[in-house]
Amino acid sequence: MHILRMTEAQHTRFESHLLDGSGLEAVAVALCGRASHAGRTAFMVHDIIEIPHSECTRQIDSITWPTRRLRQALARAQRDSLAVLKIHSHPGGYPQFSSVDDASDRELFDAVCLKLPGEHLSAVMLPNGEIFARRLNGAAVAGLIDRVAVVGNTLCFWPADKSRAEPADFDIRHRQAFGDYTTQLLSELSVAIVGISGTGSPTAEMLARLGVKRLVLIDPDIVEAKNLNRIWGARRRHVEEALNKARMMKAHIEAMGLGTIIEILESRVDTPEAIGLLSSCDFLFGCVDSVEGRDTMNRVATFYTLPYIDMGVRLDADGSGGMASISSGVHYLIPGGSSLKSRGVYTDAELHAEYLKRTDPAFYEDQVRRGYIRGVAVDRPAVISINAAVAAAAVNEMLARLHPFRTSTNEMFAIQKLLFSHGRIATRPEGPADIDLAQYVGRGDSCPLLLSPRFEQAA
Fold first, then answer.
1. What CATH number belongs to 2-159?
2. Domain coordinates of the chain in residue numbers?
3. Do domains 2-159 and 172-455 have the same CATH topology?
4. Contacts of 409 (CB under 8 A, 6+ apart)
5. 459 residues of the chain, pLDDT tens digit each
6. Cβ(192)–Cβ(182) under 8 Å?
7. Which of 10, 101, 223, 246, CA to CA, is 20 to 30 A from 47?
8. Which CATH number is correct for 172-455, 3.40.50.970, 3.10.180.10, 3.20.20.70, 3.40.50.720?
9. What gap in Å lies between CA 369 and CA 377, rounded to an integer?
10. Residue 144: beta bridge partners?
């Protein structure tokens, strides 16, 4: 499986340049990050270089353009191990590569590979904005890109193979609700869930019964007696066996017999193995309480151009057998947009404190005593019905991004606050971009991992 990913903003930029209303072909190039794991290779658009129309000889069905701007970018591509993407328009709507395209690509990528060996990409944009692409290694076509994905407020996927598999025997009512296209799309997606506990376990259950093709489950912890009140599929014997949560959920879902492919990792999310697995997915769910976990997920989603939903629950007991407040948050995050940190979910100080507590507990305790850092919060109360409601809201949010069904546009639902104590739901639109993080959109694999010193030891 080979995938090309870009953000909605990048797609809009391509569309504006390539389809300018003139009816003539136009061209742009881009540098793309790479990721390869679990038999899936992804290319992510990182930096776009538009070739000015005035520098080109444009026709209805061909274009000649100078490669000076591309040559200037090759040194950077070589330094950062980036791939080259050439993308041009077919304003007449021709839905495949032409013989003119074949000759042009052979000449261009034969020259590119002399300086930058490896696979690169050629793509075409059609008048409706759809993109198809292929891989080239030198002058040779290595194969098609199996799927082009656009990640934004609404998710677009364009497969190279337009044929559809036979419907499953259990999803007929999904098709009645969402139609064949969305139901088929679910059956082709890979979705990661990090944290298989109170919110992660019902999320996994729902995605499996929705017919998602592949689930990646990541959790380093074992099932404990305190988890039995809220982890779906957990049994007393799992506590006695000290069974890992992800392993328990794998067996639980496989026992359904719905054909879901389950891959698990019994480790923290900030390991190279976990980040590699996440990069191979199409969608990420974060179901963790830790600041480090959230920060890692947000960086992974940015570097690998992935849609990411984070969910969290807060129950505050009043100390007398009652609840002072019950609330939760469901955040939908787009690469290049606002981040959990810019939305105020956590601060750099909290991230530093949690890192210290894990890596140097003695120094952490000393810093807390001296008042230099604030202590990390301990476990809070947890109730299955609250967690399940939040997980359902998160899964419905994913469905709304694949198949918009709300009377308001998706842009209005960047944040959902489920205020159980007040009996209402509050929503907020997307806020200002996290500029520090946005520069890494589509950067892909890097050294150090995610270009952060925090991952140097892990790598």
1. 3.40.140.10
2. 2-159, 172-455
3. no
4. 153
5. 999 999 999 999 999 999 999 999 999 999 999 998 878 899 999 999 999 999 999 999 999 999 999 989 999 999 999 999 999 999 999 999 999 999 999 999 999 998 999 999 999 999 999 999 999 998 888 899 999 999 999 999 999 887 776 666 776 767 777 777 888 888 899 999 999 998 999 999 999 999 999 999 999 999 999 989 889 999 999 999 999 999 999 999 999 999 999 999 999 999 999 999 999 999 999 999 889 999 999 999 999 999 999 998 877 766 666 666 788 889 999 999 999 999 999 888 888 888 777 876 776 676 666 665 565 565 666 778 888 999 999 999 999 999 999 999 999 999 999 888 788 889 899 999 999 999 999 999 998 889 887 775 544
6. no
7. 101
8. 3.40.50.720
9. 15
10. 134
**Cα–Cα dist 310/342, whole Å:** 14
- Distances 51 to 29, 32, 65, 128, 133 between C-alpha atoms, Å: 7, 17, 8, 21, 19
122 forms beta bridges with 86, 134
User: In the structure encoding, which two tokens stand for residue 19, read together?
Assistant: 């389809």
Lookup: tokens for 17: 């340049």
Q: CA 84 to CA 29: how far, in whole Å?
A: 7
Tokens in use for 248?
A: 């328990």
State the angle between helix axes of 348-359 and 291-303 in degrees (0 to 180), rounded to the nearest 10.
Answer: 110
Residues 6+ apart with CB under 8 A from 131: 4, 11, 14, 87, 123, 124, 125, 148, 158
Enumerate the β-bridge partners of residue 216: 192, 263
Specify the residue for token string 């952490």: 364
In the block, residue with structure tokens 């007929």: 172
